[in-house]
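Researcher: Go.
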Amino acid sequence: MNSLLNKLILGTVQFGLNYGINNPNGKPAREKSLAMLDYAWQKGIRIFDTAYNYGEAEEILGEFIKTRNLSAEIKIITKLKPNIMSESHGEALDIIANNLEESLKRLNRNYVDGYLFHTPAYIYDNKTVDAMVNLKKQKLVKNIGVSIYEENDAVYAVELNKFDYIQVPYSIFDQRLNKTNFFEIAQKNNVTVFARSAFLQGLFFMSEEKIPPYLEIAKPYLKKLDKIINKYNLSRQQAALLFSCKNKDINYTVFGVDDLDQLKEDIDIADKNKDCDNCIKELKENFVDVEKSIIFPSLWKK
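Model: Structure:
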């Protein structure tokens, strides 16, 4: 089987924030984050995903780029500060351009390969969309797009035919977009699709006794998952990552890690690319409608 490493994008939210439901150690030390970036680079990962509001993640990535002299070789996707239009005064282009300038300084870059709205509602505002298009014309960004949560926003964004990149949630438990024509339109309009949340912020890694009361509803789904993947000798980590990476409608899978060991395991899984088509078929059939209270971390009642 061919390696799937070229479909992996390392996400950096964990490097800047205490992130994930199954991450007791919180944000790693800066040196550990840099070591993870080094390892990912050495193993062939060339695209990294970050955002303005991921704490110091952009700065750590910028340090990595500068000290390793990788500016010409590395690809960076970052995102506009959420809700910035309601917090700032002035023209949309000025607001967005100023925010991008801050990100570029942190990243030690003159441009980014992808610049995304982190507030999906902005796709419905012509002025903010036109501002992003303008930044692309100025060659400050190579591709523009949006990171979405709801399937109707994904369909609207892809039909708008102004975005190059669309980042969507997609996992074993979150197959909502399979029930729409999103992937079909994305292919027709040459939109690059990035899937995130393959591990649902670490929920897939949790043992039954560690699942908090507010996610009690997830336990039967995880038991059902284990029953299926055990038949195919797959771990949850393998099943979750390969479910996303092997989807031919998805161009890239954005994944996050808490430590170097986890990163090594994920890279190994993608590289070996175990044959599990029958398992994926069964997972698709068994997890069509999972409650939003499970697949939307924002709804988790912590």
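Model: The longest strand covers residues 75-79.
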